[in-house]
Amino acid sequence: MKYAITGAGAVATIVVGLWPFLESSGRNGVLAAAAVALPVQIIAFWALNHFRGELNSFLAAWIGGTLVRMLVIAAVAVVVIRSGTEGAVPMLLALAGFFFGLLLLEPVYFKLGPNETVEA
């Protein structure tokens, strides 16, 4: 839960920081990217955290989360490009940026407890 709150705060801070520099369509694109990236990233982090003590399951969650992020970016790119959505470029850049930034935030909250070990 702490990761979700911190991630939402980080995304909100970035959106507010970008707001004055974007036109209306770019703002909508960045908001849409935030709405897509945050739930996907929170679910991916939950899976990693849930399987952190089991090596094989952890690796499957890690690889699966990476693939899901790539597929989400690809699917959003196809949809916005084919539909001619205004603000597609800010949306795709923000989506990739949010995924990357939230990914960098994970290690802060992903630590084994003092009595936890990793089993193969």
Structure, explained:
There is one protein chain. It contains 4 helices and no strands. The protein is mainly alpha-helical and 120 residues long. It has one domain. It starts with a helix and ends in an 11-residue tail after the last helix. The mean pLDDT is 86.
What string gives the helices and strands in order?
HHHH
Please identify the structural class as seen in this structure: mainly alpha
- For the report, how would you describe the main beta sheet? none
N-to-C CA distance: 27 Å
Instruction: Extract low-pLDDT stretches.
Output: none
Helix amount, in percent?
Answer: over 70%
Radius of gyration: 16 Å
Number of domains: 1
Shape: flat
The DSSP helix count reads 4
* pLDDT averaged residue by residue: 86
- Estimate the strand proportion: under 5%
Number of strands: 0
Q: What keyword list fits this structure?
A:
single chain, 120 residues, mainly alpha, 0% strand, flat
Q: In terms of topology, how is this protein built?
A:
Elements: H1 2-18, H2 24-50, H3 55-83, H4 88-109
Helix pairs in contact: 1-2, 1-4, 2-3, 2-4, 3-4
In short:
Helix content is 79%, strand content 0%. The protein has 120 residues and is an all-alpha fold.
